[in-house]
Amino acid sequence: MRNLVVVAVAGMFLASAFSSADARPKYKSAFEKKYPKVAEANKVDCSVCHPGKEKKEKNNYGDALGKAVGKNEADEKKIDEALGKIESEKSAVEGKTFGDLLKDGKLPGSK
Fold this sequence. Notes:
The chain is mainly α. It has six helices and no strands. α2 (25-34) packs across α5. The relative contact order is 0.14.
């Protein structure tokens, strides 16, 4: 019986670790649909907004998107609208907006 409990607890830990790895797949999906040229030329994953291993750490693009979305949004239409809304914001590249970088096929966030 004790072994069964240990296995069950270990299984719960493993399940939670794997399910949180891609916690916001709709953000990635919406980004790839809106910017296919960028997705083809670059690795599009969590690092578009999160430059480090800590998901609490965001680059300037991630900060802007977080403010535009306002919460962990699941509606791809609202995510798409937020992506479009922040295109006009200044990037870390002097004289370029996020939208300018995206039109050039580049990832918009600073590292």
